[in-house]
Write a structure and sequence with these properties.
By secondary structure, the chain is α+β, with helices and mostly antiparallel strands. The protein has a single domain, classed as Phenylacetic acid degradation B (Ubiquitin-like (UB roll), Roll). The protein is 18% helix and 34% strand. It is built from one helix and three strands. The protein has a three-stranded antiparallel β-sheet. The protein is flat. The model has no long low-confidence stretch (mean pLDDT 87).
């Protein structure tokens, strides 16, 4: 599978001192393991997070109002 065909993974980070995780962006990767590695490289450079989650975009359901 070529990189442009890799699935998109949404990245959620729980910042240090925050009670909940926040959506911080997305990465493209062939599997969850690589998605976590890429997300860690891109979104936790200063060790500001205490938790990191990735979820395939097609598996995320959004509820509530969106701006």
């Amino acid at each position: 599978m070529a990189p442009r065909q890799w699935p998109r993974w949404e990245v959620f980070l729980r910042p240090r001192g925050a009670p909940a995780r926040q959506h911080v962006g997305a990465v493209h990767a062939p599997d969850a393991e690589l998605a976590v590695q890429l997300a860690r490289d891109l979104f936790t450079r200063r060790s500001e997070g205490v938790g990191l989650w990735v979820a395939r975009t097609d598996q995320v359901t959004v509820a509530g109002n969106r701006p």
